[in-house]
Phosrestin-2 (Glossina fuscipes), 362 residues
Amino acid sequence: MVVNFKVFKKVAPNNMVTLYMNRREFVDSITQVEPIDGIVVLDDEYVRQNRKVFVQLICNFRYGREDDEAMGLRFQKELILVSNQVYPEQKVEMQLTKMQERLLKKLGSNAFPFVMEMPPSSPASVVLQQRAQDESQPCGVQYFVKVFAGESDCDRSHRRSTITLGIRKIQYAPTKQGVQPCTLVRKDFLLSPGELELEVTLDKQLYYHGEKIAINICVRNNSNKIVKKVKAMVQQGIDIVLFQNGQFRNTIAHSESSEGCPLNPGSSLQKVMYLVPNLAANCDRAGVAVEGDIKHKETSLASTTLIAGQDTRDAFGIIVSYAVKVKLFLGALGGELCAELPFILMHPKPSRKAQPEIEVEN
């Protein structure tokens, strides 16, 4: 049986160091993260000189605009999560993958494997979308594999002998559906008898990107107020845990309906509204959370952030959540009645198939 691999290749500007990786997305299953593996190939001159070469896993967290930085103030933190010496080789037990074994045979004696374990409490890859004309670095969490030559892993790397390849830490949807979301809210009115009742139900808790969300709405008007229209929204919640007041929301899909309205006292209304949250309808909006690098062609809305517990919440740079919000409009004097239901929006776990092509990035 012949097994083929899709390989990413990147070469340093001086052509002395080459990095090979068979994937750039690594799955976080909450309790553990897939190991980051690859091959570093050195030129004969570096091997003869016995130059030290290191590979590092870098987490870059930008939490403010690059244009606002002044007088030494930086809104960016760069963390070295893992640092390993690739050459000269260290005596460390390493479980090689099939891709590494094949590349070692093909690339010769100047090829050196590496494996890095990403901490499970590290945040998922997510950035905040910028305006089209903004060329500065986006706010968010990004990961890089860095390979460089130096005297130590703390040495300042030189651009000509350094490789940085962007990777993503991602989460896929769980295999089991949760409890069906349902909520019931009531509102009574000062100096008016009776109350207005709003019940909202979703057909399931877990949705995939691009999937249609069915919102079941039931209104029972036992008050003397009149319901003039109904509005349903999908909101993306973003919590930047570094700031005390770093929470905000974006409405990424919405729909209004006056069908069945005005709803008079003593009447009831039951209807289903459909919404599809996607990035295509929000591609020009700044502040929307998207997955990984926004310049990547396959970017989508950021998935819901799944965390093991609230005690690990502070380790995540940006936490993304989603909710459906239904609002009843009662006019200027009656006010509004709102109901909110959280849900999970994620990608299904794909079946990884080996691919024959080799992709080169310079």
Notes: Confidence is low (pLDDT under 50) at residues 354-362. The two ends are 32 Å apart (CA to CA). Residues 98-107 form the longest helix (10 residues).
